[in-house]
Amino acid sequence: MKWISLFLITISLPLSSGMPIHEWEREVHYRNITLYAPAVAQLQNGSYYGVLTEVNVTMMNGTGNVFVVTTPLTQLD
């Protein structure tokens, strides 16, 4: 019985050290930033008008992949 206990402990040591202890405790950090970017458009009569465009940026920890969601409302210069 003593040999079986020693054998089981010897086998279980490499298995327990290969797994991080706090793997399930992950903290997710969010940060939101709102930027205002000027946008200028030209009317049919040639005059210009401008508005402030609100750009919302949300950052969180992760793998480093960048995802962008846009709705372009542009015209050719």
If you had to describe this structure to a student in words, what would you say it looks like?
With 77 residues, this protein is an alpha+beta fold. It has a domain at 23-63. The chain has 1 helix and 2 strands; from the N terminus they run H-E-E. The protein has one helix spanning 2-17; strands at 30-42, 48-60. The chain has a two-stranded antiparallel ribbon. A hairpin with a 5-residue loop joins strand 1 (30-42) and strand 2 (48-60). The chain starts with a helix and ends in a 17-residue tail after the last strand. The model has no long low-confidence stretch (mean pLDDT 74).
What's the gist of this structure?
With 77 residues, the chain is of the alpha+beta class.
**Beta-strand segment tally:** 2
Distance between the termini: 85 Å
Computed structural class: alpha+beta
Strand content: 25-35%
Number of helices: 1
Low-confidence stretches: none
Backbone CA Rg: 29 Å
Helix content: 10-25%
Coarse morphology:
rod-shaped
In order across it, which strands form the biggest sheet? 1-2
**H-E order:** HEE
Q: What's the overall average pLDDT, rounded?
A: 74
Q: Report the sheet with the most strands, covering strand number, pairing sense and barrel closure.
A: 2 strands, antiparallel
Oligomer: single chain
